């Protein structure tokens, strides 16, 4: 199936208030200004494409639009179509959470003005759960109406991720070899996703993986020059994940007061149940939910249980 037939989102570009020359990309479905908006923020590797996989039934943005929202997904600086000249010049990991929240703020302010809203709902997944929660607790206090933290990561030791991120010669520190960004191949995509799914579980559609990877390649003008083809993802996220997976929180959950939903796949080894429940207990929100989707892992929103993810989030976002 040709993924391009299902790639129907509108593109909006807004100027960054933080990085000169950067134009932040927003992917949108049913973006009528009269509709209530919702903003999605991606995780460490896959940009806004993860929320708008061009395959039937795989787009969370389309599901949110069908539920009545004007659905938008942001590419954080250096990801997807938010192309950054600064990333090319950077010598160390680019785009940390403290920078990402400024991109989120630019998008939230633009959407609030476009749709005539003071506050609007926000969804953040994986590393995006860190950036959106940090935003809600600090810069965005009062601007977030409702918050969904999908595949949330907070502050719990995770030996598997520690081994992936640590310096081989000194496990007590982050690997200093990480540059500004990395190249993501199809083999790397498959290996990462497979590692998140229990052995023998048939939870993923191969066509969805292909649509996600091929559309991600199309968003990076340098992808075709690589052998094998690959797209870029910034490495600043690794600095943040290193802190979280060593039990050091990057934000104060008690400072979050808006309604919050924690939403995760029941078998997720990256966003663990213990970490998510610790976050749930620490939140300052009077209204909060913990939702776990059985037979799903870290990418459950792109697996066979995706409709359950979409339904749970849409119900909460609608209030």
From TrEMBL:
Keyword Phosphoprotein: no
Keywords, alphabetical: Hydrolase
Entry GO MF terms: hydrolase activity
Domain AB hydrolase-1: 36-303
Keyword Transmembrane belongs to the record: no
Domain of life: Bacteria
InterPro entries noted in UniProt: AB_hydrolase_1, AB_hydrolase_fold
Protein name, per record: Alpha/beta hydrolase
Organism of this sequence: Acidimangrovimonas pyrenivorans
Organism placement in taxonomy: Bacteria, Pseudomonadati, Pseudomonadota, Alphaproteobacteria, Rhodobacterales
